Amino acid sequence: MSLNLGIRRSKPKHRAADKVAELKQQLKDQQAETVSAFGQLIGAADTIAILEADLAEARAQKAEAEQVVRCLAADLDDRTAERDQALADLAAARAQLAPFLAAEANANAITVPAPERDTTAFEDQATEPIKVTTLWAALGIGPVLATQGSTDPAHLPAA
Question: pTM of the predicted model, to two decimals?
């Protein structure tokens, strides 16, 4: 025979040892997360240091490039001024030299007599001009008139 006195346990009782174990597990999980976050923080700090070094190098290169551009611009301005001065000097020299060049060209001019065709050979005899006329004038005919099928000369228009 079983003894059932009406004591029923619907839920197991919570013990303090269970709560301590649960808190220890939470502490371990948080410590693991803290270690992971610390590792990420150190990794981020390293990345930031590398990026800051790259930024400093890029800024230095930019400053150097800007200095080179300023030097090249100044050099270009100097050379442009020199070129403009040389063009002005050349134009003045051409103006002074023009009368001498014209006199030399006139003095050393090459003259050639007008060409004359030798027509002594039969093949080279000049031909007479070709007479170009319309076919009507060449054949002595006039334009064709429409007679509308009539052969009576009274119906033909006067030419």
Answer: 0.39
